[in-house]
Amino acid sequence: MLLGVIADDFTGASDVANTLARGGLATMLHLGLPRRDADAATEAGVVALKSRSIPADEAVALSLQALDWLKAQGCRQIVFKICSTFDSTPEGNVGPVSEALAGALGAAGVPVCPAFPATGRTVYQGHLFVGDRLLSESGMERHPLNPMTDPDLRRWLARQSREPVGLVPWRVVRSGAAAIRDALQAAAAAGERQAIVDAIVDEDLIALGAACADAPLLTGGSGIAQGLPANFIRSGLASGSASAFRGVAGPEAILAGSCSKATLEQILVHVREHPSLAVDVEAVLEERLAPADLAAFVREHEGQAPLVFSSAPPGQVAALQERHGREAVAHRLDALFADTARLLVEGGVTRLVVAGGETSGAVVSALGLDAVAVGPEIDPGVPALASPDRPLALALKSGNFGAPDFFAKALAVMARDA
Ligand SMILES: Nc1ncnc2c1ncn2[C@@H]1O[C@H](COP(=O)(O)OP(=O)(O)OP(=O)(O)O)[C@@H](O)[C@H]1O
Ligand SMILES: O=C(O)[C@@H](O)C(=O)CO
User: Fold this and answer.
1) Residue 63 contacts residue 81 (beta carbons within 8 Å)
2) φ and ψ at 343, to 5 degrees?
3) Burial readout 223-259 (b: 16 or more C-beta within 10 A, e: otherwise)
4) Domains of the chain, CATH where assigned
5) Which residue minimizes the CA distance to atom 14 of ligand 1?
6) For ligand 2, what atom is nearest to the CA of residue 119?
7) What is the reported pLDDT for 305?
């Protein structure tokens, strides 16, 4: 294994795995801390953790365990994958984990950049934009777990970090790889353990990747990995051939627990032409609706791309949370989807689309999968995934990713060349 990634959530892990596979590395996505060595053919390994919104010391401990495993697999370079909207609180976890990894690897002047231009996330003068809005006016300032109230990433990261944080401005980035490398070295010499790097377009990220061919650590969104595969292919270390993904045909299901804007629109589009079940959340909480009911609905509509969703608009979600408690509702719904997915796969479903990071984490953990191979991209940031051991394909969609027709498209891409 050449390149190792530690990702702070499951859909984010799938996002960066997509970037590396598209770049030509044979990529495996490890779902949780791996229990055994990677396959010898793997060139890039992504370890998916659920460390974004847990206490910082726990996130550090988990990430250092993932680092040990990746180093034992022979990785020469590590990426710490965070969210493209920099989801974190003043306590962390981006700064604490990034600094701990840098300490363990002896890295300084570590580039930190969440930019992902294909999904509208850009960084200029150290400030993060989502489309044409500053992060703090994008809706992220109301995020339930990680409200992003400050778009100045240098300031936000410095609050979470022990050591000074620098900035490599776009003026330098647009001058190319050599200028970026010099700026990161200067940051390291000035005692800056981490430096925010501006990036507005893909070319900026590719130049950053070229500048970081020998860097032990990079921290960022999936965009930061865009230029890295080429370094390994150019030097002859990686073959540039694709991963072991094989498409899968067969019974299918779509499970959506994400209440994000993009998911709500995808549901609206899908329900027009496909059988769909809107989960009555009150009925779930009162145990009048169970996983077996959801699985039965899917079975009745096999072959017609059935969708089961709990997703609801913000007002409805807030009312439910007020009545029953945020944690209680989320916990019950995550468990509902996890148990439903297990029943579906036991009952023969071989293509499963899941919308939402928490929901995906719950589903994948319930399925007991160790690792999946990364296949073709469905939409920016979301690849088709397939188990190497059994006929099972997955798509794990981050809440805000994907075009309006994502669900039907995902099922088609998963079956490609099956
Ligand atoms: N109708 C609902 N009311 C309240 N909570 C809900 C409802 N439907 C789903 N949830 C919960 O909301 C959470 C949605 O989080 P999830 O991470 O799955 O989606 P997301 O936030 O859109 O995605 P991402 O984290 O990838 O951006 C889950 O824990 C889910 O159980
Ligand atoms: O970077 C992103 O926005 C996603 O990969 C993600 O992390 C979603 O949780």
Assistant:
1) no
2) -60, -40
3) bbbbbbbbbbbeeeebeeebbbbebbebbbbbbbbbb
4) 3-234 (3.40.50.10840), 252-414 (3.40.980.20)
5) 258
6) 3
7) 98
Q: Tell which residue, 385, 407, 50, 116, has the closest CA to residue 262.
A: 407
The bound ligand whose nearest atom lies closest to the alpha carbon of 357 is 1
Residue 345 near residue 359 (C-beta atoms within 8 A): no
Question: So what's the pLDDT on residue 244?
Answer: 73
Residue carrying structure tokens 């979301």: 382
For residue 357, the ligand 2 atom closest to its alpha carbon is: 9
Tell me the pTM: 0.94
The Cα angle at residue 5 between residues 25 and 169, in degrees rounded to 5: 95
Question: How high is the ipTM of this complex?
Answer: 0.97
Q: What per-residue confidence (pLDDT) applies to 270?
A: 98
Ligand lying nearest the CA atom of residue 119: 2
**Ligand 2: residues whose CB is within 6 Å?**
9, 11-12, 15, 83-85, 116, 221-222, 357, 381, 398
CB atoms within 10 A of CB 166: 24
Low-confidence ranges of the chain (pLDDT < 70): 242-243
